[in-house]
Amino acid sequence: MIEYILRGLLNGAVYALLALPMSLLFSTAGTIDFAVGGYALLAAAVASTVSGPLGLAAGLAAGVAASAIMALVFALLKRAGEAGIRIALASFGLSVALSSFVLLVWGTQPFVRSTYSTFLEVFGLRVSPQGLINLVIALVLVGGVQLLLLRTGLGRMLRAAAASPLAAELAGIAVLPLQCATVLAGGLLSGVAGLLIVYSSGLDFTASLSLTFIGFAAAIVFGIKSPIRSLLGGFAIGIIEALSAGYTSGLVTAMVPAVCILVFLIAAQLLAPNYTGDRP
Amino acid sequence: MHAAIKRTIGIRRGAGLYQAIASAVLAMGTLALALPAQADTVKVGVLLSFSGPAAVFGLPERDAILALQKEVAATPINGHTLQLVFFDDKTNPTEATRGATQLISDDGVVAIIGPGTGGGILAAGPIAERLKVPLLAPAGTVAITDKANSFAPWIFRVAINDQVGVKTLLGGAVKNGAKRVGVFYQEDAYGKFGNDYAQKLAGELGFEVVESVSAPYTATDLTADATKLRNANVDTVFMQVSISSLGASFLKAAQQVGLKAQIYANSGLSQKSFIDAAGPLGDGVHVLSIGNLPYDPTPPEQKLAAILEKNGEHPQGWGEVVGSNGLMAVVAALKKINGPVTGENMRATLETLCGFDTLSMGRACFSKDLHDGWLDDALVVTTIHDGKFRSH
After folding, report:
1. Residues 178-207, chain A: which have Cβ within 8 Å of B?
2. Is A203 close to B245, i.e. CB distance below 8 A?
3. Residue B199 at interface with chain A, using a CB cutoff of 8 Å
4. What integer is the mean pLDDT of A6-10?
5. Which residues of B touch A100 (CB under 8 A)?
6. Domains defined along chain A, listed by start
7. Are strands B262-265 and B388-391 parallel, antiparallel or unpaired?
8. Would you say the ipTM is above 0.90?
9. pLDDT tens digit string along A14-63?
10. C-beta separation of B319 from B330 below 8 A
């Protein structure tokens, strides 16, 4: 069981990086960017094509460029007074468009880079150095975002925009540019996730929506409003997947994580305090 | 005098008119003799997956059909000019049904190469039966030619039945000493079929399926699955996977967790993209293939490879072979057909085709009782060495 938990933890680190942009944007703008999987896919495709460290930079730039499209759509819809649901639906459309673009340009080839051929022994288990790299990167990025939100002026402005966009505007905070910047940050973080997947297991043009859904699951399982919760959600999804693969029959393996998420969400609703009635 | 002049003019006018008519008739007759007899146009639909997960097969199938059309159908076949009409089923059975209906009702096709997947074929089968147009199906899904389906007479398989494939592959594994077999399969009908059939074959072929694991197409980590197989002490892993990235991911996971077993992969992974994705980890993996077009082509496959290269396409795997099977079957039917070219007549003619010209391994043969045109003589168990599929 320890082996499955460890492997799930390492895999969950990548899920956390997909969950983090969703959590950030929801906190800041009350909507979700469902194109994070598309950003990850595009970053992976570009990085696989351009060799060396330049490929990594190009991949990240591609992820950010794709999120810039979403930022523009976001800004236009916000200016038109549209609600968060339309923005979320637009992001779905972008995710599908990015998948189709990757298929058009790169075809059906998988995007995968060579992995390490030597392994580390961690508590008696063989672990790829790539898995540890993924974990460290996820911890650094999540920790960095958490620090940024809590300890910096920019973070204060983001939290103010999340708490009350109107009040923040009145206080002189440029809410819309901040929210657009959050979308761009999402492109960058998703791009990192895409690059880590290329070096871990690989992916192809079909991965966009499934990466989005897994990121969404990781974002919501413990509540969507905190980077730390996204990290924990990613770990939880990774561990549940690994335990499910290890201990259940192939017929139900894919179902178990989804059922667990449903249980968590229902439990959270049932256990949440409910205050009723007016103040005296 | 005036009347005489008038009469003369009238005669001359009349004569001129008759002359004009006679000249026109003469010219038309000459023209008719000079022009060759116009061939009638026969439309055939190509309903494959150009997008969605099955595009990995649909695109090479399409490329082969396009390249071959220029070679074998550039001139009329038995007085019929072949025109292909393309439709993307988007790896979606609903689109496949819509495509079949549109191709038959609007475009008037007399046969359809496709749909691209087993699910699409099963969905479009009733349409083919109702509108009386045969489907040449490039899929291994067993059920498509199951005689229990009322539409079975309208489906002609141009790939290899999955049962034949799995039996050939696992037979080869047993010959190489496989006793404790673990199955890794992708979570769809194709994967589940392979897992179930392997369990069924175990007793017959003399091995034991000790563990089965599965993963969705887009799984990002398979180390847990590989760990489960390692813990079951398998000596052989049977991979029923058609997605290159998933297959390569499993090999990486197997290496990482220390799973040491022979790996036998079904023909879904007989793609260059799998070799590219797997890299050095692919060495020694056995992969079933419908022919070996890119690496060790037989003489007919060499012709297909040459045609593809001429059209700027680089052979990838068996997708091109299966696509070419579909078009060659259509061409053979058009060469043999008697009477009007209708869907019903095409179907009846297809059932009489045996030993016709193809660009693939094996002897293609359809009959009233057998709509699986290619059998195990079209298969080869390859082994990956130095980045290539090598035939045994």
Report:
1. 197, 200-207
2. yes
3. no
4. 89
5. 51
6. 2-113+124-271 (1.10.3470)
7. unpaired
8. no
9. 999 999 998 888 888 888 899 999 999 999 999 999 888 899 999 999 99
10. no
Cβ <8 Å between A201 and B255 = no
Among A103, A117, A254, beta carbon nearest to B216:
A254
pLDDT, residue B10, reads: 44
How far, in Å, CA of B138 to CA of B131, rounded? 20
Model confidence pTM above 0.90 = no
pLDDT tops 80 at residue A153: yes
The per-residue pLDDT for A200 is: 87
- Is the minimum CB–CB distance between A253 and chain B shorter than 8 Å? yes
Which chain B residues are Cβ-neighbours of A14 within 8 angstroms?
A: 220
Chain A positions in Cβ-Cβ contact with residue B255 (cut-off 8 Å): 117
pLDDT less than 70: residues of chain B: 1-39, 392
Could you please report the per-residue DSSP string of chain A? Answer: -HHHHHHHHHHHHHHHHHHHHHHHHHHHHS---TTHHHHHHHHHHHHHHS-HHHHHHHHHHHHHHHHHHHHHHHHHHHHTT--HHHHHHHHHHHHHHHHHHHHHHHTT--B-----SS-EEETTEEE-HHHHHHHHHHHHHHHHHHHHHHHSHHHHHHHHHHH-HHHHHHTT--HHHHHHHHHHHHHHHHHHHHHHHHHHT-B-TTHHHHHHHHHHHHHHTT-SS-HHHHHHHHHHHHHHHHHHHHHS-TTTTTHHHHHHHHHHHHHHHHHS----S---
Cβ–Cβ gap A200/B258 under 8 Å: no
* Cα–Cα dist B200/B205, whole Å: 9
| Chain position carrying tokens 């061939």 | B39
